[in-house]
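Lab meeting, item 3. Inverse folding demo.
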């Protein structure tokens, strides 16, 4: 049953389906896989869903993809400069990790 529903949502290009799979991978601490699912959610949302952008940047950070995390943070902050915690939680940490 789950597979049929999942495939139907994917075929429709549903951002929420990709986001849900990213959430599952994130809970399993498979951050690289979670980032792939969140990338698709971000693309299907046309880069406008700031919550997905935050989750994508977070998983990039956890997967040691610091430059990608910084890039997504800048895109989220361009839309909403006061987006809660993204600068402190992700952007600053990613920048510090690159400098080391």
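The presenter then showed the designed sequence:
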């Amino acid at each position: 049953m789950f597979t049929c529903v999942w495939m139907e949502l994917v075929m429709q290009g549903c951002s929420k389906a990709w986001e849900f799979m990213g959430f599952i991978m994130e809970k399993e601490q498979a951050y690289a896989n979670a980032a792939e699912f969140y990338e698709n959610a971000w693309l299907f949302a046309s880069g406008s869903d700031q919550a997905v952008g935050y989750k994508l940047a977070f998983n990039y950070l956890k997967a040691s993809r610091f430059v990608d995390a910084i890039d997504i943070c800048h895109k989220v902050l361009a839309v909403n400069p006061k987006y809660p915690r993204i600068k402190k939680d992700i952007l600053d940490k990613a920048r510090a990790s690159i400098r080391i």
